[in-house]
Every structure is written in structure tokens, then in C-alpha cells.
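Quick illustration, no need to memorize.
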Amino acid sequence: MNILEKSIVISLALLLSTPLAWAENIHLILKHASDANCDGIADTVLHSQFIRIKPKQCIVYQVSAKNTGHLAVQNVQIKGQIPAYTLLHGADSATQVSAQTVSRSLPSLSSGAENSFQYWVQVL
């Protein structure tokens, strides 16, 4: 088996930090797509299905938080781990990057509102 035939499973841990009373009203959604040339533009529509990525190619991730409650939620922080065997290659301007973590802080998320951020990693 050569290096292009190897498969690795990349998992992403998502964390939500908000007052406990509001946590059940926030739904986290993770979508991804391949980005063969690592320019931060997905090659296909973002989705949640299995994808195969070769070493040196990238994966674009979109993490969304949706408030399904009837009231605004305050102080929402969404954090994601950069997967093992990958290297952060880029992120949208509002995404905060620290070591192996990407995050977005929202002072408020209105009822029915959704907020998302994107970043992309290169498979080693």
C-alpha cells in the first residue's frame, strides 16, 4: 500500500461554552468538504458525509451554532480541536486560533439565529 492509498480518520472535537441553562438551545453543526489545492475554497458543497482526502490535500471545515430557543443566548464560545495528523492552513478573519484550537466568541446569539466560522487544515 503506498502513501496515497492509506486512510486516516480525522475527528474533530467540538466544545460549546455558554451558561448551562442555555446549552440545550444551542445546536452545533459541523460540515466539511475537500479542498485539493488548499486555497480555502471547498471543491464541493459543504456536507457531513464521509470524504477521502490524500496527504497534502486540505479539508475545509464549517462549524455553526444555531439558537433553537425562544430567547437570545449570551456569551457563546464555540471551540474546535485541530485534528491530529493535520496542520492548520487558514481560517476566516473572525476565527481565533490558539495552539491546536480554533474558536469563535459570540456576545449574543438571537433566537433562531445561526453563526458559523470556517477554517481549513492540510492532511500531513
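The first helix runs from residue 20 to 23.
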